[in-house]
Fold this protein.
Amino acid sequence: MTAELQAVQIKTDGLKTDKMIINMGPQHPSTHGVLRIILTLDGEMVEHAECVVGHLHRGQEWQGQNRTWFQYQALIDRVDYLSGMFTSWAMARSCEILDDVVVPERAEWLRVVTSEMNRITSHLLWLGTYLIDLGAMFGFPFYPFRDREKLFDLLEEVAGQRMMFNYIRMGGVQRAPKDDWYKRLEAFTKEFPDRIDEYESIVTENPIFLKRTKGVGLITKAQAKDYGLTGPPLRASGVNFDLRTAKPYSIYDKLKFKVHWLDQDAGDTWDRYILRVREMRESNEIIKQCLEMMPKTGEILGKKQIAGLRVKAGEGFGAVESPRGVLGCYIVSNGSDKAVRFRWRNPSFSNLSILPEMLAGHPLSDIMAMFGSLDIIIPDVDR
């Protein structure tokens, strides 16, 4: 080291930076919604973070108590807008459990097929946008949208819409697919594994991606449990819990599939990435099984869908395993055409709660890598 550099080092060693409090958001291109994070920075390092939610409050529960059962079915998939099938399914299950509704077997198979398709579309969008968050603006983020659009074409055919499906109803599903729909879906399941291989060849061992994700945003098994995490963030941290097998519902107990989880004491952002990639492969295999086993004829609705739709008096709770984790719906009914009480257990809310602890001690540049790995949908947080 030269004498000049030594002199500079002596002068700078004793310097301290002032702590800064800055806002990240609520309008920010990488928060995937209107989220405000109040950051206390010591230089480039995050010392403290506070998430301020409520900017996208939809009044989800209030609307459920001020709309009829029939009307509310059409509103709920606008909250977690990337996985509307699961929101509709959670509400339908809570009502069916309370109302003793028998769902036709064919409808249960169609629910699983369309929901696993929706799981794939959700993970595909996450993959593309996550790479943008990390600065991969070279075209790859649009690759997943190619396959996502193919699934949306199929979902639109049975639901009438590409995102806000309103397909799963109390007692079943609203429409049965045509014969060629099954063939086109089967063709997709055959080509999709090669597409995932393509994604992995670009991303999984990419040195820049590894540098941005390996060892970043560690969540221990104990932390994941303490904060009530569910879904990929929980399973990547070493907890083998998936509602489809832990408490089987619908026809999942008739299917053979693997719950992907990482047997370790802590998971980082790369672990959460690879887990979602593996879940897409598994959902594709589930759809294949369903296409082989499901009945192609039969009833699809066990409860008549009319404007005066009612649910008998009492309390009911239903939950499903959504792309973001356990999504639950609690209802109280007095037997009229409106609910007395709606209460949702949204996975994004619980998963976001750990973000301040994750960010502390990391540089500013790691914030979006950690936040994006949780796959938060802000309306699902604010409800």
Observations:
- Residues 3-12 have pLDDT under 50 and may be disordered.
